[in-house]
Amino acid sequence: MSMPINRRVFMILSVILVIGSLGALVLSSFTGALVYFHTPTEALAKQPELNGKKIRIGGMVQAGTLTREAGTLKIRFLVTDGKGQIPVRYEGIVPDLFREGQGVVVEGTWKNGQDFPADTILAKHSEDYVPVEMNEQGIAKSKESLLKSLK
C-alpha cells in the first residue's frame, strides 16, 4: 500500500526538522566548548575594540616578572608571546601549575590604559607548551606537544 502524498511530505519534513535540530544542538555545544584567546600582540593591536569586553589572553608568564603582595593573594606578572607583553593583576588562589616561564591563559574584562584585571587564571598542563610565535620549530613542536597530550 502506498502512503498518501500529504503524509509522505509530513514524514519527510519531520525527519528534516529532527536532523536539523540535532545538528544545531551539536554545533552550539561545540561553540560553547571552544576556548579562544588573544595573544598579547593581538590584544594590544585590537585594544580599542576590546575595551570593556570580557576576553582571554594567552601566552607565557614572563620570567622575573611575578610579584606577590605580602599577606594577600594579590599577584602581578607579565604575559608575553615573545613580541608583545601585557601586565596582569590577579587576586585569588592560582593553579598549582602556575609559575614563571609557564603557559597561561588569563580571563578578565579589558580596560584600556590599565593592567589587565584577571578574574581567572588557567595554567597550561604540558611542560612543553610554547606559543608558536616563540618557538623556532613552530608547527613541528606544536604537533609533538599535541601527540604527547593524546597519549
TrEMBL record:
Stored InterPro entries: CcmE, CcmE-like_sf, NA-bd_OB-fold
Residues that bind heme: H125, Y129
Membrane side Extracellular: residue ranges: 30-151
Pfam families xref list: CcmE
Keyword annotations of the record: Cell membrane, Cytochrome c-type biogenesis, Heme, Iron, Membrane, Metal-binding, Signal-anchor, Transmembrane, Transmembrane helix
Keyword presence, Iron: yes
Domain of life assignment: Bacteria
Cytoplasmic side: 1-8
Cellular location(s): Cell membrane; Membrane
Broad class of the protein's primary localization: membrane
Bilayer topology term: Single-pass type II membrane protein
Keyword Ribonucleoprotein: no
NCBIfam families (alphabetical): PRK13254.1-1
Family indicated by similarity: Belongs to the CcmE/CycJ family.
Function noted in UniProt: Heme chaperone required for the biogenesis of c-type cytochromes. Transiently binds heme delivered by CcmC and transfers the heme to apo-cytochromes in a process facilitated by CcmF and CcmH.
PANTHER family: CYTOCHROME C-TYPE BIOGENESIS PROTEIN CCME HOMOLOG, MITOCHONDRIAL
UniProt protein name: Cytochrome c-type biogenesis protein CcmE
Species this protein is from: Candidatus Magnetaquiglobus chichijimensis
